[in-house]
Design goal:
This is Polyadenylate-binding protein 1-B-binding protein. Keywords: Membrane, Transmembrane, Transmembrane helix. This protein has one domain. Helix 2 packs across helix 7, helix 3 crosses helix 8 and helix 4 runs antiparallel to helix 5. The protein is an all-alpha fold. Helices cover 81% and strands 0% of the residues. It contains 10 helices and no strands. The radius of gyration is 23 Å and the shape is globular.
């Protein structure tokens, strides 16, 4: 992040990744603690989710006996899991975005200052998340409608309807879902670094993505693909691989995959922060480090002094 703001627009995908990976070296202790307390629990929960739900689902699929208690346990577990996932996802985003921005403005960085800033940042991210969730609900309704249409096409053996439904479902999942993910990630950064949130943050994110949509698509699709592969391997080897792999092998592979997902999630959070600055530079929107420094200090309730003695002299005159 040593490049002048006007040159950030020229960063390629590989440059963004290299820049993101190098950021933790600027404050290794802070990122180590963020990873240990926020990113690791989030990553572990994502993978361990299927490990705990698999036995319950197996019992429910058993045709013998009542499954009321199993369904109750499953619903309670799912509810707690979603709350945990939602909370730690926002907390991790707030911590990483705030820390990266602090380093970008040469602001003193520490784990304690990041944690102190999270409560105010969390409120803004929460409101933005609600707006994104409402948009995703509308998307899921449309997606579900075309899935039903696809089933109808299969039952009626209507080739034209089947082909149309497959194309729409594919485009909705691959294009719209990835775009919404990119919009959400960028809106989260906007909510932390700019005095807007909610629908306004989504609108600003939409404007910033213009001209950089392809780059955002590749980054988000790559991230989702890697996470999908990790989840798939964890499910096939650790969760369902009891008949083919020993306990020791499953523990080692599971630990490795959790560690790999931690790295992927941490790098992904830093990439979305760097990508925000790239988009700002591409649209020639000035990145005032002094104003950003003051904005970040506002989360901590810090006293912001006058920027120069010239301002005081002008007031005295």
């Amino acid at each position: 992040m040593d490049l002048p703001p006007e040159e950030l627009q020229f960063l390629t995908l590989s440059d963004i990744l290299k820049e993101s990976v190098s950021i933790p070296k600027l404050s290794p202790k802070t990122f180590y603690l963020i990873t240990l307390t926020l990113v690791f629990p989030l990553s572990f929960a994502i993978l361990a989710h299927s490990l705990f739900t698999h036995p319950l689902l197996t019992q429910i699929q058993n045709p013998i006996g009542s499954h009321t208690s199993q369904w109750t346990k499953l619903l309670i577990f799912q509810f707690c899991y979603l709350i945990f996932l939602f909370a730690f996802s926002l907390l991790s985003t707030a911590a990483v975005v705030f820390t990266v921005a602090s380093l970008y403005t040469s602001k003193p960085v520490s784990f304690s200052s990041t944690i102190s800033a999270i409560p105010n940042v969390f409120k803004r991210l929460f409101i933005t998340f609600i707006w994104v969730s409402l948009s995703m609900v509308a998307y899921n309704v449309v997606f579900l409608g075309f899935l039903v249409l696809l089933v109808v096409a299969i039952d009626t053996q209507n080739a034209a309807l089947f082909l149309f439904s497959v194309v729409v479902v594919f485009l909705l999942f691959l294009v719209v879902h990835v775009y919404f993910s990119a919009l959400w990630h960028l809106a989260s950064v906007v909510s932390v670094l700019e005095p807007i949130y909610g629908f306004s943050a989504m609108k600003k994110s939409y404007e910033l993505l213009k001209g950089r949509t392809k780059m955002a698509f590749v980054l988000v699709f790559g991230y989702l693909s890697i996470c999908g592969v990790i989840n798939g391997l964890f499910g096939s080897i650790v969760v369902h691989g009891g008949e083919y792999y020993g306990v020791f092998t499953r523990i080692v592979v599971g630990g490795f995959l959790v560690g790999l997902l931690v790295i992927v999630n941490l790098v992904g959070l830093m990439v979305q922060s760097v990508f925000y600055y790239v988009c700002k530079s591409f649209h020639h929107q000035g990145i005032d480090k002094s104003a950003l420094y003051d904005h970040l200090g506002g989360y901590l309730g810090e006293y912001v002094p006058l920027k120069s003695s010239i301002q005081m002299e002008n007031l005295e005159v």
